[in-house]
Amino acid sequence: MGAESYTGRINRKLNKKLRIVEIAAGREKADLVLKNATYVNVFSNELCHGDIAVAEGLIVGMGEYSGETEYDMSGKLVLPGFIDAHIHLESAMVSPGEFARAVLPHGTTTVVTDPHEIANVMGADGVEYMLQATEDLPVDVRFMLPSCVPATPMDESGAALDYRTIDSFYDHPRVQGLAEMMNYPGVIGADPMVIEKIVAAQAHHKKIDGHAPGLVGNDLNAYIAAGVYSDHECSDPADAIAKLERGQFIMIREGTAARNLRALLPLLTEKYADRCMFCCDDKHPSDLLEKGHIDYNVREAIRLGVDPILAVKVACHHAARYFLLNNRGAIAPGYLADFVVIDSFQDFNILQVFKKGVEMFDGTAVRDFPAPEIDPYLARKARDTFHVSRLTAQDFAERRPRGIIGMVPGEIVTEDQGYSDHIDPEWDILKIAVVERHRNTRHIGIGYLQGYGLKRGAVATSVSHDSHNIIVVGANEADMAAAANRVAENRGGIVVMEDGWIRGELALPVAGLMSDGTLESVNRDLESARAAAFALGVSRDIDPFMTLSFMSLPVIPTLRLTTRGVIDVAKQQYV
Amino acid sequence: MGAESYTGRINRKLNKKLRIVEIAAGREKADLVLKNATYVNVFSNELCHGDIAVAEGLIVGMGEYSGETEYDMSGKLVLPGFIDAHIHLESAMVSPGEFARAVLPHGTTTVVTDPHEIANVMGADGVEYMLQATEDLPVDVRFMLPSCVPATPMDESGAALDYRTIDSFYDHPRVQGLAEMMNYPGVIGADPMVIEKIVAAQAHHKKIDGHAPGLVGNDLNAYIAAGVYSDHECSDPADAIAKLERGQFIMIREGTAARNLRALLPLLTEKYADRCMFCCDDKHPSDLLEKGHIDYNVREAIRLGVDPILAVKVACHHAARYFLLNNRGAIAPGYLADFVVIDSFQDFNILQVFKKGVEMFDGTAVRDFPAPEIDPYLARKARDTFHVSRLTAQDFAERRPRGIIGMVPGEIVTEDQGYSDHIDPEWDILKIAVVERHRNTRHIGIGYLQGYGLKRGAVATSVSHDSHNIIVVGANEADMAAAANRVAENRGGIVVMEDGWIRGELALPVAGLMSDGTLESVNRDLESARAAAFALGVSRDIDPFMTLSFMSLPVIPTLRLTTRGVIDVAKQQYV
After folding, report:
1. What is the mean pLDDT of chain B?
2. Number of Cβ atoms within 10 Å of the Cβ of B205
3. In this complex, which of B44, B61, B190 lies closest to A22 when CB atoms are compared?
4. Residue A222: in which H helix or E strand, if any?
5. What distance in Å separates the CA atoms of residue A289 and residue B112, rounded to the nearest whole number?
6. Cα–Cα distance for residue pair A211/A116, rounded to 1 Å
7. Rounded mean pLDDT of B298-321?
8. B258, B303, B263, B298: which is closest to B278 by C-alpha?
9. Strand partners, B277
10. Predicted TM-score of the model (pTM)
11. Helix (H) or strand (E) holding B209
12. How many CA atoms lie within 13 A of B571 on its CB side?
């Protein structure tokens, strides 16, 4: 559609609305009717019965209706479509379209994404890329603008975003606010560069998400008074309740790296659940394929004894209220016709999924939909984010003593394990390097890693939070150089190298973060690379790539590695 | 403040926010601290204890704080300020500033007004007048734009508002949406002129209030699917629950003309209360003085057994959520420092009221505040709304038979009592006339009235829903002319006339609806006019002016009188 005057817009909407009223009043046939439905009424917290009529993608009424298309819902349950309140889509390692294809069978019809990863690579262009890559998808993708790029000035990322750089995005109809304000010390410390981002989001009447694990007392007051409305970092009920009592909304996170659902079950009662919602934060391919998405949270919550209707509300209604997505999260007139049809609360098998009144999943397959068009300039730019000269073993041949980062199985925190000046696979001392890859600065930070277990070869990845430089760990410098070079050659991804042979790899050519392939093919490549890494000796207690990807995030204790060397996070000093 | 750039605005807000953070974190003294407060926490539904710190008009934290000004709250209860979700301010018959002075001692800190009455007189200028007359008052006055001016095309009001006329008001920061859509037959019947008003409000992302007593089934679906989000016309729980279940919010009305609180008490339980709020719709001076405002509803609800914390939430939090007034209705960091201090839930005496951190009521008096400035052009225009030639007895000397409107004590519905061709006070047959007064059309509708009881003289009022022409009822035509003339001379108001003598009067020179005086003086004049009317024989079962003011509203059965004659409302025909 070209330019449209205000009058033209009102007239267009008027004609749709007149049709909706005619159909709701029963004077015309609906586009779609779910006949004899038993559905969750989020307003009365009970199951209701009747036909659900749909027109123009909206629910127009419940009662007795007939439609052009009708489905008999006898014996089934109809729920509103699920909402993921906080995700970084890039973590699925596939395009947003492919992500949509993967989550539709799980009942997800809306996600709120923070394009934090791609923004660290491409800056504002990364945000724009994701907006274009999600336009008109059958899963509605809403955005929170990255608030902390780079995560810390200690790091070298591909971009830095101040409030002015992101400001124009607030006018985009799918932008809901400012994403997780991870720099809570900056907020509490009244750093103007941090606070002005919040002030600008408020000036646009937008939401501001939080990220402040364990914050309490007057510091928590300061963080909330500054204008942070939610938190998804709670891992125990006391932390969550302190935040709820001060007015924050709580996103109960159950993702690949962090899983808080079970610990936060006490929130899922009448007293607190109204201001709770579900999110996954990060969700890796195997997890999406094997466990599912928000449906997994609902199923688990019900299995663990949560009232099913309440669990469903947490999965849809509450996130819609928080984000002011006023037309979704309920089955009522005027709401989006986003439905999840299941067999029963106990079995919770998803039989059908509708998005805006269109059946997108029929129990077997996802209906085809066109891929969003991306501006050619942006598409090219997203595939050209590696600016790094060819590396040799010499580039990693450091002989001075460097700090040893000690991995802790099942955690992303690390320990300080002293110093080393050489690789010693016998004692599980490997070399680790972070290669700056955005601007070809030739900055290479070098350190040692203990607990990874590699005996031969090297492993490299361009998924390395949050700056997404190339992390490479190796038992020898030649394989480290070869692995890092191969990652750059692939324009991103994961490589497992042994004696110059590629033993496994996954190419992630979009910003070094996302594949062009299907979720299944990405998962296949990932699994085979994982097997290769284990074959080279990587400890089976550790996810060879995900754990590695956190080794350069200099905001999590104790030691981390950046392009400038090993950092003591607590002291914010190089060791 | 003059024009301000976006950067200037962000910087100004940033500096306030930095100060808020410093104070919240405890590094600087607060502007105000309510020490040792026991306060209602609307998020955990319990009483909490601590100091409440305020800076820049906002709550910045609860815990331990010290402030420039401190009040000891030991033994008292602190509640969020109350919100009236739907009122026509004009019905208080005083200026908005005077209204604010009257309701502050009752704990009201926000009202949402529909300037429907003045809009029927002055059109868009009436809306603008009220916006200016409420600027920076210590009660925050928010607006819903009149949706039904005139109430019906059968009537002659001072203005007609289509969607384009009101559209620019949506940009005003205190306009929350489109007011009660009384023309529900127009919505259900898909009248484009009606639906386009809803569509335009939605295009501005605004709320749309409803007014649809007893609507059910698919018609109710159609009304809600069209985009109407609330209702304040429910007089029984079944009606309210049908609407709640379909997603509408319910405003529980307790005003002067209509009182639904007691009937709707079953809604005030955990199951439904979340989407319920309080409103008064119309509140007359004596009622405000004697009973109070939203505090009356809370007090009554508690007395009738409603959980006190739930009653308080209905009085503040839920309306704030509905209207997206996100910074009020709770005691939590970032929320407006609007407080009501009471002694206890049982006694519910209001001891202090704070608005944006300023003590506005100290238990005895209201702190003085400046009257808003009104554009001189508008101020003049508001006092020049009577355009009607001098009337004589001859103007009312109709001899043809006319319909008799039968009054029903305690109701505003009327009965069809046949015809008459002359006044007969013996048989309680009075003459009633509606004199068009906006455009000097000399249209005078004449009929007869039974049940009013007047024996001598005449009573006239320019408060006559919704077109606010002059209604005059009399035992003789000479007094009818004199009373109507006197109303016009006063530029509006109420007059009780006997043999050419003014027995009682209240001047309402602002649009013929509002006085320049205090609420107390208006009430005094009104009470003395009422006494005069009773002295002339008006039945004591009837409010002499309020009941009269509904006799020309041609949307309520059975018979009504307009400037064109007596109407059968059901048939929408002149009798």
Report:
1. 96
2. 12
3. B190
4. helix A217-225
5. 50
6. 13
7. 98
8. B298
9. B251
10. 0.96
11. strand B207-210
12. 8
Radius of gyration (Cα) for chain B, nearest Å?
25
Let me know if B476 is exposed, middle or buried by CB neighbors in 10 A (0-12, 13-18, 19+): buried
Cβ–Cβ below 8 Å for A241 and B44? yes
Task: Tell me the H-state helices in B246-316.
Answer: 285-290, 294-303, 308-315
Report how far residue B489's alpha carbon sits from residue B93's, in angstroms, rounded to the nearest whole number. Answer: 18
| Three-state secondary-structure class, residue A359 | strand
The closest CB to that of A60, out of B6, B221, B330, belongs to B221
At residue A356, φ and ψ (nearest 5 deg) are 45, 45
Regarding beta strands B30-41 and B77-80, do their DSSP bridges make them parallel or antiparallel, or are they unpaired?
A: parallel
Mean pLDDT of A126-155: 95
Task: List CB contacts (< 8 A) between B238 and chain A.
Answer: none
Contact flag B218-A274 (C-beta cutoff 8 Å): no
What is the band of A79 on the pLDDT scale with cuts at 50, 70, 90?
very high
Peptide bond into B150 cis (omega under 30): yes
Confidence class for position B155, pLDDT limits 50, 70, 90: confident
**Selected residue of A202, A246, A309, A331 to mutate for chain B interface (largest B Cβ count, 10 A):** A246
CA nearest to A358, candidates A100, A142, A138, A174: A138
- Label residue B412 by pLDDT band (50, 70, 90): confident
Distance from CA of A30 to the nearest CA of B (A): 12
| Closest A-chain CA to B218 | A25
Q: How far apart are CA B460 and CA B492, in angstroms?
A: 10
Span B70-88, pLDDT tens digits: 999 999 999 999 999 999 9
Confidence category of residue A113, pLDDT binned at 50, 70, 90: very high
Distance from CA of B18 to the nearest CA of A (A): 6
- Exposed/middle/buried for residue B47 (C-beta within 10 Å: 0-12, 13-18, 19+): middle
Sequence-ordered alpha helix ranges (H) in A387-511: 477-489
pLDDT exceeds cutoff 90 at B102: yes
**The one-letter amino acid at A344:** S
User: In this predicted structure, what is the pLDDT of residue A2?
Assistant: 66
Burial class (CB in 10 A: 0-12, 13-18, 19+), B451: buried
Look at residues A146, A145, A173, A128 and name the one whose alpha carbon lies nearest to residue A372.
Answer: A128
Q: What residues of A are in contact with residue B203 (Cβ under 8 Å)?
A: 6, 9-10, 13
What is the least distance, in Å, from the CA of B362 to any CA of chain A?
A: 27
| Euclidean distance between CA atoms A511 and B123, whole angstroms | 57
Residue-wise pLDDT for A481-532, tens only, equals 999 999 999 999 999 999 999 999 999 999 999 999 999 999 999 999 999 9
Residue A44 to chain B, least CA–CA distance (Å)? 6
Name the maximum alpha-carbon separation found in chain A: 83
CA distances from A187 to A369, B412, B553 (A): 42, 58, 57
User: Where on the phi/psi map is residue A442: left (φ > 0), alpha (ψ -120 to 50), or beta?
Assistant: left
Q: How many residues does chain A have?
A: 575
